[in-house]
Amino acid sequence: MYDRVLIESLTVASSKAWPKIIERYQFVTDYLEINMPTTADVDRFAQHVGLSRRMFYRLIEDRKRQLIERSSASPVIGRGRPIDKEQELAISDALANHPADALLRDICIEVLRICEERGIKSPSAYAIASRMRIRGKLVEIDARLHYQFDWVLDAAQLDFDIIGSDRVARPAYLLAVIDARRGVTLAHQVHGDKPRALDIINLISSKFAQSRSGSCPKRVAVTRTLWAEVELLVSILCHHSIEVAECAPRTIRSGEALMLVFGGKIGNISLQPRPRRRFPDMERPAIEMALAEAIVGIIVQRQNEEPSSE
């Protein structure tokens, strides 16, 4: 099992920083297990992680502080940097004046107008966009995708790889069941490659998804990522009186539903990175499946638990 302190550190960091965070975490763990470490031990460990003695001591103190604070509340993911309370209120008012499917451009214009009227500095477009993601539970996904359905099944590639049981690294995918009325992630799975029909069926039929929704869906939609599995899904789900919107994958882009809920990133994990075939030399961190599930699970849970902006 992975320590909660390590997982928390990874949930707030970019995936590019994960290898260094994991390496330093392991070295500090090994150091703390030494009974009465000497200065020579400090120098040896500091050299391994490429830090001065002083910086390594600081790393040790940070770990001890994290262990003490590990039971405290975690920071909310997705809000971005803190901004002035009056700016927060301006964004909240602008969001309240627009429908759920409003464009970022329209919200920014409205925020600018409100700030000018109140004589305050306008927040950045990034700050506005990050707060638009907070109202994910207020977004009616089906209305924004122009389809009528209860659940939407979406999958998107993430910006890191999963190390499989055969020790081969494959692209990580997030498969999610999203409530189309509330924009809440009912259930999700992390996969080390594109999900197959059996994975989708298992996720739909999971008691967790149905208990969060309150009932079994009557109609589901799938996005373009799962296009190859539509025919098999139709044949299986029809026996459970669940209709599949077959035409949806032709128009709903891969990851579109996930992006409506989370924005362009899930925490600091990018959705739909550039395809590897176009950038074969692009470095991607590779982690174990258990660690990936823990990181994504915490981020998804926080997104579901975020208070709405109403």
Count of discrete structural domains: 3
Distance between the termini: 39 Å
CATH architecture assignment of the largest domain: 2-Layer Sandwich
The structural class is alpha/beta
Q: How do the SSEs run, as a string of H and E? A: HHHHHHHHEEEHHEHEHHEEEH
Task: Identify the CATH class of the largest domain.
Answer: Alpha Beta
The percentage helix is 40-55%
- Tell the overall outline: flat
Largest sheet: 6 strands, mixed
What would the CATH topology of the largest domain be? Nucleotidyltransferase, domain 5
The total strand number stands at 8
Query: Over all CA atoms, what is the radius of gyration?
Result: 22 Å
Count of discrete alpha- or pi-helical segments spanning 4 or more residues: 14
Mean pLDDT: 79
Beta-strand portion reads: 5-15%
What does this structure look like?
With 310 residues, this protein is α/β, with parallel strands linked by helices. The protein folds into 3 domains: 4-69, no CATH class; 85-138; 141-279, Nucleotidyltransferase, domain 5 (2-Layer Sandwich), CATH 3.30.420. The chain has 14 helices and 8 strands. A hairpin with a 5-residue loop joins strand 1 and strand 2 (169-179). Helix 3 crosses helix 4 (53-69).
